[in-house]
Amino acid sequence: MRRSLIRAKLAFLLLAAASVASAGDSYRIVHTYPHDPRAYTQGLVFVDGHLYESTGLNGRSSLRMDDLTTGRVLQSATVPAQYFAEGLTNWGSTLVQLTWQSHVAFVYDRFSFRLLRTFHYDCDGWGLTQDGKNLILSDGTDEIRFFDPATFRLVRSIRVKDRGQPVTQLNELEYIHGQIYSNVWHTDRIVRISPATGQVLGWINLAGLLPEDQRSDPEAVLNGIAYDAVHDRLFVTGKLWPLLFEIRVVPAKARAVPVHRSK
Question: Which of helix, strand or coil describes residue 166?
Fold first, then answer.
């Protein structure tokens, strides 16, 4: 009888642990910073101690350098009103900013925000990051494209799948520890992707990070990932969010209920 109870308890605990794991990794808030609640955040990048942001919407799109501590805009450039700005990444001494449906990207001098040139691509522009070799672009589907940053030629593409099923709505991107992190639009989740195969390596569940009663608009969704490689800091925010968060990812296995076997 005792062995039956032990087996039943063990099965229950294993099921609970599996349920926690399937929900994805969780998070711990390390620090909270102010963020402009009018910023329709489309791209976010942290480089050389500075936080850069791309904001969207026609007539409101911009490139910004923000003060991390206060959220104040230190420097900005206005994007022409016919463009809806999207993802942003750094490349050398430049910043590269996508547009949504215009199929054009802007390349700026990172220090003066002077527009240096433009290039064109044959898809929508959503998220943008880089791996030190290529620019990496998402377009809202399950496809991620890799571009040569010198010629802007398409090098290759991958399809993102989780257990054989396509993962779509891939939005803002960041390259961290050899993986592509992507917001999934209209969700509170970030997916971690293998850049070699497109296979999903894991999920980060950010539910509850910004409570619903602090979101001013139905489109005030999670969208913005930046990584400080020097100090190993991960920042996230959202469109029209009043706050930007530094978080630490908590692996699901670390939260699982420990199973103790009886002799």
Answer: strand
